[in-house]
Design goal:
With 447 residues, the chain is of the alpha/beta class. The protein contains 11 helices and 17 strands. The strands form 2 sheets. Strands 3, 4, 5, 6, 11, 12, 13, 14 and 15 form a 9-stranded mixed beta sheet that branches. Strands 1, 2, 7, 8, 9, 10, 16 and 17 form an 8-stranded mixed beta sheet that branches. Bound molecules: flavin-adenine dinucleotide (FAD).
């Protein structure tokens, strides 16, 4: 474990954090409990849903959640709010690595999140601006267009993908008119969602608190040690002896578990909130806006007429020292603010609209070499579980991973119902490749 991977203490405020949460710095008890049945480290999407599903499984023992900062202030409160399954764009590479069945497992699992997220929001009656919609991927370079076409038809040929009927490719005038993006010659549309993730997670956490969860905010975990068949969880405020511990620490996992150094790499990303002066026609879709390689932006059209735009990767990826292995979300990447100003002019319904970029923030994503998270029990370390490394794409991956892992934590179902590519295995842990910079197209060491 290394304190250099702990979350920064003074993160930039994101638009999502304007929602008031009255337990944001709660410590349920003044002192940490000396012992607990389960300790969850992290209160983001993974930690909150883990607590929720453990309780859904009728777990009635003691549960403590330890959070380094105020509640849920990591990536979950700093993201694009875009629940967008990856259905086709990576298909060829996933098929190459995992075969047709393996690729289909991932695509079908991500698509299943649309129903699962909608269901949990409706069942629990959570107000989080959720909208089920269609996303539109536009491709603004020749290479991106060709990648799109190749991957789309490759995905359509995969007999194991059950959700392919939900995707449509459009060309020429149809692509421009449907997307509202002037330069878009090819677009792909499919079902997606958008929401206020911080509201969803804190609402779930509120329900867990009502059922007895002990939440300890502003309590960084510094490491764990095996002690008499249990896990001694060491924090800045003392220790807790836990029967089981779950690391829901995403980009920061190396701060609690050294085996993840160089395996889950903290990557700094940028996002913004843009408000129009006179509300233009509502955009029909959310968006993925692709350029060459890993360069892409994403956009959601909020119900109040404002938009969230994230990406600005042109300003980030060339500069390794500014974003790679960086946990500091207290500053912005220089140049990214300018990038978001005027961004909306590319949509022909916004081209004459004056708009203000009123929030720009940074956040830390947990990238992995193979682009998949690590979910499961640590090999040879009974009672220690990990759900982390969502590679900047957690919204369509975390919920059902958490649901499956909760069952495994309780010993109810050790065969995790998640894609094989997500499973935490000895083989994945031993593997020492790290091609993250290469995949982002970053020259090794600029700046
Ligand atoms: C700018 C940005 C935009 C994004 N946009 C999207 C998007 O539109 N769609 C999408 O699918 N995904 C997006 N993502 C990714 C998505 O937000 C994440 O995959 C998801 O939120 C991960 O949830 P998590 O709970 O695993 O991590 P987090 O929300 O980061 O939660 C981890 C928590 O653990 C705590 N913690 C860490 N270490 C310790 C420790 N040692 N002790 C105590 N507490 C600790 C942290 O403080 C944090 O609260 C984006 C991410 C960023 C940063």
């Amino acid at each position: 474990m290394s304190s250099k991977y702990l979350p920064a203490s003074n993160p930039v405020k994101s638009f999502w954090l304007t929602a008031e949460v009255d337990f944001k710095d709660l410590r349920s008890t003044e002192e940490l409990p000396a012992e607990a049945d389960i300790v969850i480290v992290g209160s983001g999407y993974a930690g909150s849903t883990m607590a929720y599903y453990l309780m859904q499984e009728q777990f009635s023992g003691s549960m403590v959640m330890l959070e380094a900062r105020d509640v849920c202030t990591g990536a979950t409160a700093r993201n694009g709010g875009h629940l967008k399954p990856s259905l086709y764009y990576s298909h060829k590479s996933w098929k190459h690595r995992y075969g047709e069945k393996g690729a289909a497992e991932i695509v079908n699992f991500e698509h299943a999140h649309l129903k699962a997220v909608k269901e949990i929001i409706e069942q629990e009656k959570i107000d989080c601006d959720f909208v089920l919609t269609r996303s539109c991927d536009v491709h603004l370079t020749k290479t991106a267009e060709q990648d799109c076409i190749d991957n789309y038809y490759d995905m359509m040929r995969n007999p194991y993908i059950t959700c392919k009927h939900d995707t449509q490719i459009l060309f020429g005038e149809a692509a421009k008119n449907i997307s509202h993006v002037v330069d878009s010659n090819v677009c792909v549309t499919f079902t997606a969602g958008q929401l206020w993730p911080y509201k969803l997670m804190t609402s779930l956490l509120r329900k867990c608190l009502e059922k007895g969860l002990n939440l300890q905010t502003n309590t960084p975990v510094l490491g764990t040690e095996k002690r008499a068949g249990k896990w001694l969880v060491k924090t800045s405020r003392g220790t807790i002896l836990a029967k089981k511990v779950v690391f829901a620490t995403n980009a920061y996992t190396a701060s609690v578990e050294p085996k993840f150094e160089n395996k889950i790499v903290p990557i700094k990303g940028m996002c913004s909130h843009i408000t129009p002066e006179n509300r233009p026609a509502h955009l029909n879709n959310t968006y993925g806006i692709r350029y060459d390689g890993a360069d892409q932006d994403y956009l959601i059209n909020r119900p109040d007429g404002s938009v969230i735009v994230g990406g600005a990767k042109k300003h980030i990826f060339p500069f390794k020292n500014l974003f790679y292995n960086v946990v500091d979300d207290s500053t912005l990447v220089p140049g990214s603010e300018r990038y978001f100003d005027g961004y909306m002019k590319r949509f022909h319904t916004w081209d004459t609209t004056k708009a203000t970029t009123d929030y720009v923030w940074s956040g830390i994503l947990g990238y992995t070499d193979d682009s998949f998270p690590y979910v499961g029990e640590m090999p040879h370390e009974e009672g220690k579980f990990v759900i982390a490394g969502f590679h900047g794409h957690g919204m369509p991956r975390v919920l059902l991973s958490s649901k499956a892992l909760a069952k495994a934590v309780l010993g109810k179902d050790k065969n995790l119902a998640i894609p094989s590519a997500f499973k935490l295995s000895e083989q994945r842990l031993k593997q020492t490749n790290n091609r993250i910079l290469q995949s982002l197209g970053t020259p090794e060491a600029k700046l």
